[in-house]
Design brief:
homotetramer; alpha/beta; Rossmann fold; 3 domains; 2-hydroxyacyl-CoA lyase (chains A, B, C, D)
């Protein structure tokens, strides 16, 4: 740190900082996340004086992830403020490219709206009408375009089955009767027409290829980004334009002739049966009484108490994947997870950003941040940030003592008897029975260490009831939980 | 994380991993630091089977910093193992460039040794003999070249005053009678001949320019790197070559004619007087009884109990700068700090690397890691790593509730009464009275919260005595300590 | 060149080449420009066997520029084929990024068509109707979108004055009565509503800022690229979509209510008067009998004989700028110039690409390539390529013995008497009286060295009449022509 | 070109230019190569006023290649001055990286000299003494280090056979009795000890691997660059240091005990016999009377008249490779060729740089630039630069109508009868019988078109006699010359 003398800051720095802060204000910036250091401190102070909120973070990575979430949540630019040099390099984890001390995570102005070509809309409507086994897939792009009204109307008016992608969850509520999330694999595999609303055929959607799809499935792709159209699979129809505007065009076109996809079709029956059997299987697993708990038991209890209006943030491996199938979203843009790239370390930054938005826009609203124990390690020190700003966050750590899986304390101790830990400890193991909840109590928040369904229920109830401080619930599960899950192969991600 | 199914790892991955692990073994790799994930897990396991030690970290940044320290400490390559994609980007904080899943932090083979040109050595010896006010500056390069024997001989045989740079500390012990560290500014300012042993004229040495130096000071630069010679200042003599080999050449040349720099010269007297007065001033400050403690009180008590053979790792602003002047090093390559770039977040990674080396090479040896409270936040979750491997580390957090400075609890509470924290909390403030020691107890280590000299002494004594587990001492100091320090301008870094 | 043994090419190279060639064919590639070398030769041969045309160039820069023009001219991808290593680096002049031996200069498939939001079209139509002093600016984007029909209809139906940008010339013919190119500065300065069709407010359009524009001018921006909307100036209305489709939407909207911009308005009168006076001034200058000729004399004679259907390619400083105001385009996508970045060296590559297209699609059609003498030097050796393939190109070199300006032979000789050329020759001077036409005769083409209007007329006539070989006319002008031009400040680019 | 108004240059530009020019002067810059454009023109003018020579080039590529040669030739920095933007990208062909308008091609100051470790020198001397079949390889690094005196002494005093690499030619004259270039393959294949003086084991030296070398050959590597030591092959001894200084150390060590490698050893006999038979075969080919000429006939005639002190610059495929074996160098640093990467387009830039140096330092000295016809095309327009500055360059174009090989005129015409040239012309063909010499006469130089040995002899004699202007000799050879050469496989590069 070449210069740390806070008192010696120059006039030039101060006035330069004011100019930058004013520019940020003009761009409608509401939140800055950062780590101060000369000369960035001045900018933060100047921004506060103009009414911009400054959230001091503990590592540049988390600051960047927080800033990147703001644009998605509010449509306004999020700013990450770090010192150049090492700080900037740290921040690269959250940024693809940057060459200044501060930058914007999203466009500043809402872009003009474009619509699809009329004739293409016409073709798309016709393809949908003639579908035998139609399916809508609702992606993050639909959430980003605020297309919830129009897509919900489409679903309900024509009785079309739909699936959300991870961040498309909540555009239409997960508990909607047309949601076929619990029969995901079946729906993908047998659909003959699939309409993608801002969803991309990446690995999460198995690239749109057989055997996960019919070889002759017709894709209708609705997207704002011309470059994304036709990647991996050549769509039957492409509708380039603002997703909300295009969905309205589709509705208008379909409205011209009365029509509805028959709710008692064989396709609907197949899907409903599959959903029923999958849900029964999950429920059975969730109701197991054996200890330590398994993932399903944990998530069913969480789901029972989950407030309808909360933000859900999540990262981890099984924690994120299984949690996503059980925890329901009822509102658009209320789920943030590690997403397409599976980037670890995003959770607490995202949760902090969501909590700032919740606090300012809907007092009383909560952020539930569901972390694997390994995932929590990437940015756990941000708990101090959460306590410092007293943010309405409930952290759940689903703790299996490792990455993918770990050992219980007895096995661990036995293992260490032979030789040193660095020689014999499998690389995916973490310390068993870590008391992560103390990382919360260290900073004045509330911490819980829970091992049974009853303790989990109680701690959740207390956390939700106490709106005066953040809390962390450290939930011990079976360290080898993954293995068991694999016995039920229909439970793994690709078969739901 | 596109694929997290540990059980489904392919034959190809396993055998590919073995090849890589064998290659690392052939390159003499002893330690790998990393975060596993498919397909990197296989490499870690294969490496363990070949006797390479694997240390699982919590964030790629810390893993990289740890790996980068290994080369300096052992002369063998340190390896950082991360998943490509987001993990690799996280790891960039510790690497200037990288394009593979794993790489080496240092050359694999010891390079051939080069020597300086004979005539240049001759000239340098003559310049030294004719110096009125000579000074040696011992840098990190001298430590890296294992030049301790030859440089110590040079210092003692010719009675030359010397100064170490931060990571040059310990090449000759800090308590050596020829060490003039306590009169640093004076020595730099009035020397007429300065010999740089692997030290560079960067900002830490004020670029070698007036008014911190005589305008006509003659620099003799001893360095292995041709590109570094003559940066900023044109040296009078440059000796390009291996620093140990060149120092031996210098000794041989000086030995040809009996000579010694007079220990009772005016220059030595001036320096001794200045050292005496500076030390007295520091001691007075250190002996202050007022609470909360100041930096000097803290460091004097730490120094009193500091084991002679320990590693000292440090990062922070004032914590690192003031600590460096008080805490003494007696061995080469036993101090690691945030160094030239002041990179925050290196401390725990460095400490873990040093602890691995200590544990394996000198059982009983300790690592003292001195962190500012803000600095600790960058990688504090690595405390779990420390506990998991039960590493011989004592963490000292010098806690002033902020970056550079913070507030006490009362001021903090008063401040929050007005509006929300994000609006009024100065950007450099952290939560007051954070119980960082609980981050240690959460994982089974020993934690201390200390507010008085007596508590500090006692906790240090206990930590040093208990060799069964790591500990963390959270030392509360005056939150506005910086300000006070500035009243005594002779205490700031540049005047010691 | 690590391996130049043509006979030793491996089976693998041959079959790999066939795969690549087939892929290019599948992508509808019609032309490849390149420089061969192992292993690229095989690809070129395999491509020829599949009916793709291969044009061997003399420098990778020109090859890339040629390939980049093909997409614009034909809507199909142009390919540049170079050896990796040094060849690839040479080629970077024509490419922003590339990491393979071959790549495409344009998207392969025509993208889906998007339209503007209906309400925005409505607003735009209303703004146009209410304009007092409207102006259309037709840019390269309009040409690229093949919007000539719809824009011409808009101009003619509503009697709106329009200006083309350099590469927008010809979308509506330059000699159209509504074209106000000859009153460019006036039109920009006083318009109250400006509709931009695929034109961007960059330096060529003075960034859309006062004093070149009214401070309260309303811009309506029609563009396919959301990122370009609102740069520099905040538009009153933005119409995001395919430019042709959006223009049709505009026409449809305006058609709803009969309306026309009054052809006898004060605005039209002002513009017509300014055009008249500017044209008179240019004509006077063009008719000057003094020798050497000036730019205007040269271009007026060229314009007199310019075939209506020819391609015009141009690069240079004054040569390009003044030539653009005099030489008329009557067809869309028939002008290619150094454009926004003023890149020197693009001319011959562009001309070769245009000539290939002309030869294949409209036999008899000619390419007129107007080069400054300095500009010609960047890729003059491509004349051999032109002769080798016997391309229908007439090269005009407007030769003032320098960059911006030069010296006549006498001054040059006088100057050299003093000291060596490298000491006294001004950096912008080239050799006076260079016989560039011999670079054409060296390869069997026809060359002319002309110094008078009569010689220019005659050589043009002969070149146009002789369809059996390419020709180059080296036109000597006043070396200090720029200076004279500056006396007539209304002649400079920004005041026309 | 955003602004080309030369007259409007601002005061700021002028004074900024002066500062830059003065900085270049201070750095001892003697030559600047560039292409002007605002704001670079000002810098060029300011530099000329300070006595720096400015050479205006026609393409940035050539400018960069010229600048890069200056450091090698003079030991002082060469500067390339181009406009940022497109010009800078063009210039990348000559630069690995650059981010400013101007930069230096070499270090500014001569670096300090380092020596090898005494014990390593001792070992190396012992290995050399015990060699049965020793060989020295003299590389570009030896030339760069000005090690000609010391290496020649080593060769002569100990009677050691040596081979030069392409740019190591002339460090010891090619006609020295110890030079075994004519038995290159044999020497490499059977040597038991090889000392590399600044030569690297890259593809030119077959990576130092069997079967081109004995599996147990011992390499002694003398190099200034630690990173280069031990690449590809692990050397028996490495001597790190300045090559001249280290060679002197070696001489000193070997001098301690009288010794000489026996000139009548079996190794010397083998090498001499092989050289004799290879030379006889080459001579026979060279003496062939059939027309068109072959490569050997051409080069033997050139060699006969080659001035002892000339610079030889060369690029091309067979032209460079075969020419290198026939054309002899007698002085160090007097050969420049396309080198390790085989970069095409470097020839004229290198020749211009060498000619500037020749003109200024040894008036009367000539530069012979030997180009393949394809190679000439990359930067042929620089002939105007050569004429403008009247540089003492003789360009030889060895013209086989193509890249690697081409067709004669009759075959060419026959071929075109079928379909268009782009469909049937093989990609490696260029126009037959191109009169490249007219590219020289176009600018006032002397041009020759030669088809017989007699014409070649005569044109060479005239070119060398006429010191008033540059000349270009366009030498027609058998278009399929490569094929014939392959009948004599002992003539190819790897068997000489």
């Amino acid at each position: 740190m070449p210069d740390n003398n806070f008192a010696e800051r120059s006039e030039e720095q101060v006035s330069g900082a004011k100019v930058i802060a004013q520019a940020l204000k003009t761009q409608d910036v509401e939140y800055i996340f950062g780590i101060v250091g000369i000369p960035v401190t001045e900018i933060a102070i100047a921004a506060q004086q103009l009414g911009i909120k400054y959230i001091g973070m503990r590592n540049e990575q988390a600051a960047c992830y927080a800033a990147s979430a703001i644009g998605y949540l509010t449509g306004r630019p999020g700013v990450c403020l770090v010192v150049s040099g090492p700080g900037l390099i740290h921040a690269l984890g959250g940024m693809a490219n940057a060459n200044m001390n501060c930058w914007y995570m999203e466009r500043c102005m809402s872009p003009p709206i474009s619509m699809a070509e009329t004739s293409a809309v016409c073709t798309a409507a016709s393809v949908i009408r003639n579908a035998k086994q139609p399916l809508l897939i609702i992606g993050k792009g639909a959430a980003y375009a605020h297309a919830e009204e129009s897509i919900k109307k489409l679903v309900e008016q024509y009785k079309l089955p739909f699936l959300p992608t991870p961040m498309g969850k909540g555009v239409v509520p997960d508990n909607h009767p047309c949601c076929v999330g619990a029969a995901r694999s079946r729906a993908l595999q047998f659909a003959d027409v699939i309409v993608l609303f801002g969803a991309r055929l990446n690995w999460i959607l198995h690239f749109g290829l057989p055997p996960r799809y019919q070889p002759d499935v017709k894709f209708i792709q609705v997207d704002i980004c011309a470059e994304e159209l036709g990647n991996n699979v050549k769509p039957a129809v492409t509708l380039l334009g603002n997703i909300n505007a295009v969905t309205k065009q589709l509705l208008e076109e379909l409205d011209k002739t009365p029509w509805q996809y028959p709710p008692e079709s064989k396709w609907w029956k197949t899907l409903r049966e599959k959903m029923k059997s999958n849900e029964a299987a999950s429920k059975e697993l969730a109701s197991k009484k054996s200890l330590p708990m398994n993932y399903y038991t944990v998530f069913y209890h969480v789901q029972e108490q989950l407030p309808r209006d909360c933000f859900v943030v999540s990262e981890g491996a099984n924690t994120m994947d299984i949690g996503r199938t059980v925890l329901q979203n009822y509102r658009p843009r209320h789920r943030l997870d590690a997403g397409t790239f599976g980037t670890m370390g995003v959770g607490l930054g995202f949760a902090i950003a969501a909590a700032m938005v919740a606090k300012d826009r809907s007092p009383g609203q909560r952020v539930i941040c569901v972390e694997g124990d390994s995932a929590f390690g990437f940015s756990g020190m941000e708990v101090e940030t959460i306590c410092r700003y007293n943010l309405p966050i409930i952290l759940l750590i689903v703790n299996n003592n490792g990455i993918y899986q770990g050992f219980d304390t007895d096995t661990w101790k036995e293992m260490l008897k032979f030789r040193g830990a660095t020689a014999v400890v499998p690389p995916m193991c973490l310390l068993p029975n870590s008391h992560y909840e103390q990382v919360m109590t260290a900073f004045g928040g509330k911490g819980y260490f829970v091992q049974t369904p009853e303790e989990l229920q109680k701690s959740l109830r207390q956390s939700l009831a106490d709106t005066t401080k953040p809390s962390l619930i450290n939930i011990m599960i079976e360290p080898q939980a993954t293995r068991k899950a694999q016995d039920f192969h229909w439970l793994t991600r690709s078969n739901m």
